[in-house]
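Marked as duplicate of an earlier ticket. Keeping the data here for the record.
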Amino acid sequence: MISVQRMSKKVNGRAVLENLSFDLAPGCIHGIIGPNGVGKSTLLQLLSGVMKPSSGEISLAGVNMPDYSRKALARRLAVLQQGGLPPAGFTVRQVVEMGRFPYQNWFGDEREDHSSLIDFALDSMGLTELSNRQLDQLSGGERQRVALAKVMVQEPEVILLDEPTTYLDIGYQVQLLDTVRQWQRERGLTVVAVLHDLNLASLYCDQILVLHQGGIAATGSPAEVLNAALIREVYQTEASIVSHPLTGTPQVLLQPKKQETVRLFEKVK
């Protein structure tokens, strides 16, 4: 679905990503992980067409990104930005309805009524009771759920999620990712998600790409990628890997640096 060939990106003269080549298969959930500052969000913006690579090519369904018009690209690909939506003077329902923009004419009209699709998206994200509330009256987590509902009604083939669980408590993190996975499986969608939480990435992603020092440190299934040696190399910390009791997927248990903790405690005393 998405192919990246020999792609590099410089920001303010600094090489952020260098000579990346990889393919993202259709119908899967792909996770992008790595420590802060390695270019995860930059890579997502490149995949969305918002940024252009300094060199190399990115194609979607065999077509180079620059060859898509804005509306044609929006019919195939949708983006959930980090941090959700900013406060605005629109109701929740009005914001979700904006997801239909790629299919509207100059007058903002469509040939068919999609109100049932709007209702489904609101219900899926637990927003029905908030549908008439102004966006600036919502919490950051609630706005994040509105943003995902807006993406849902866009009916894309590819969804790009930039840290979608930011500002959400653990209950809504699971609800959001459960919704994305169910939606992805029902529609055969391709999902690409930047995630900080390695355990969530392991639970929900079919494939994981690990960024490190401007390049790709590893790619593969969670079982192939998440191991103590890689976490030590990429995150500079020790971890134990255990199997999830229900899914069997690897889960990361962090290990405190005991000796340094003791020394710090002694200094405090």
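See parent ticket for discussion. The mean pLDDT is 88.
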